[in-house]
Design a protein that fits this description.
Length: 160
Amino acid sequence: MKNVLFLCTGNSCRSILAEATFNHLAPAGWHAVSAGSKPTGAVHPRSLALLAREGIASEGYHSKSWGTLPVVPDIVITVCGSAAGETCPAYLGPVLRAHWGVDDPAHASGTDAQIDASFMQAYATLRARIEALFALPAATLDGAPDAVKRELDRIGTLHK
């Protein structure tokens, strides 16, 4: 089994969108969780509304700390963006690490339509990257850790 942790600071938008989308698309043997280094304590309502519109289950997802993970991850993917000098937390432990930066839609401003578009952009970027991961040949995913890391890093540059 491959356990993936999507990690950011607040665990209210991007990492929740990634966790839910990953689990919705995941083949057997893959599972994602998400967490934050400083969780907000609540999932952003626009994240939940977007998942519902996309037909992705969101029951049970909640903002949580990386200190309370139910499993030890095999792969940690940080999703913090570069907007406003955001700093990604560094997960300590013997895991594969990759960075798939996405700007935080929770900080979007403007009209409701513009804010919704920011959430949709974050979701679309994460979904495209997750789909690219699952499109890799099984031999690559089950291969040497350095090869998996190279692919994770490459995928993190897609759809910016």
